[in-house]
Specification:
Elements: H1 2-7, H2 23-34, E1 39-43, E2 48-51, H3 53-59, H4 74-77, H5 82-93, E3 99-106, E4 116-126, E5 132-141, H6 143-151, H7 162-167, H8 173-183, H9 188-195, H10 199-213, H11 218-227
Antiparallel strand pairs: 1-2, 1-5, 3-4, 4-5
Helix pairs in contact: 8-9, 8-10, 8-11, 9-10
C-alpha cells in the first residue's frame, strides 16, 4: 500500500499534493500505514480514503485488487451503506467524541450482499487549533463470530441450548439479523437503518422469523435469543 500511495497523483485528488497536507494529517496517515491493525483514514471534508493492507484484506471481495478506491471519496465507494455511516461521520466532523461500536451490522440497502458485522473505533484527526482534518478508523470484521454465536457453533464464546440452536437453521440471514437486533432492544426503525431496508421489510423479516421459531412476542424472543447465545457477549 505504501507503493500505491507514493505512486498516486495526490494533486489530482481533493487533498492536493502531499507536501501541502497539515502535519497532523500526515502523521495520521503514517500511523495508518504503519499499523498492524485494519486502519483507514478519511481525509479532509471530502472524506478521501487512505488505508493500509490489513484494511484491504479485512474488507475482502474485489476491494483489495482495485486501487481505484485509494484517494477517492468514501461516499462514492460505499453508496449502498452510506446512509448507515453519514450520521457517525457528521458527528465526528462536527467535533464530537470518538465512537466505538461492537458487532455493528452493515447491510447493502439493495439487498444484494450479506449483512456484515464490525467492531470498530472512530475518532477525529485534529489540528493544533482543534480543527477536524479527517477521521481515523480502526476495525475488524466480526461476521463469522456473530454467525457462529447465532448458530451455536462457537463453543468458546457461546454455550447455547442445542435443541433451540437447531431451530435457527430455517431462518434466512436477514431474518436472523432482524430477530437478533430486535432481541437486543433495537426498534424497527433502528434495525431498518442498520440493515439498509425499509421498516416494513424489517417487520416482515421479524414476523416470518418468529413464526418459524414459534415465538409469539418479544419476551419469548429474548428468552430464545438467550438460549441460542445471541446475547452472550452483549
Amino acid at each position: 500500500m505504501r507503493a500505491r500511495c507514493r505512486a498516486l497523483d495526490w494533486s489530482a485528488t481533493p487533498l492536493g499534493p502531499v507536501e501541502t497536507w497539515r502535519p497532523a494529517l500526515r502523521t495520521a496517515v503514517q500511523l495508518c500505514l504503519d499499523s498492524g491493525f485494519p486502519t483507514v483514514v478519511h481525509a479532509g471534508p471530502e472524506k478521501v480514503l487512505i488505508y493500509n493492507d490489513h484494511y484491504m484484506r479485512a474488507l475482502g471481495g474485489g476491494f483489495a485488487q482495485d486501487p481505484g478506491a485509494l484517494g477517492r471519496n468514501a461516499q462514492e465507494i460505499w453508496p449502498n451503506v452510506w446512509d448507515q455511516l453519514s450520521a457517525i461521520y457528521a458527528s465526528l466532523y462536527a467535533g464530537g467524541p470518538a465512537q466505538v461500536f461492537e458487532d455493528r451490522p452493515y447491510g447493502d440497502k439493495d439487498g444484494r450482499k450479506e449483512i456484515t458485522y464490525w467492531t470498530s473505533s472512530l475518532s477525529a484527526i485534529r489540528d493544533d487549533d482543534g480543527a477536524v482534518l479527517g477521521i481515523y478508523c480502526q476495525g475488524i470484521q466480526t461476521t463469522s463470530r456473530v454467525h457462529a454465536q447465532a448458530s451455536g457453533a462457537n463453543d468458546d464464546t457461546a454455550r447455547p441450548d442445542r435443541k433451540l440452536s437447531s431451530a435457527t437453521s430455517d431462518l434466512t440471514p436477514r431474518e436472523t439479523d432482524a430477530l437478533r437486533l430486535g432481541a437486543l432492544g433495537h426498534s424497527n426503525k433502528e434495525i431498518a437503518a442498520a440493515l439498509g431496508v425499509s421498516v416494513k421489510t424489517v417487520e416482515t423479516h421479524k414476523a416470518n422469523g418468529m413464526a418459524k421459531l414459534g415465538v409469539a412476542n418479544r419476551a419469548a424472543l429474548v428468552r430464545f435469543a438467550m438460549g441460542v447465545g445471541w446475547l452472550e457477549n452483549e
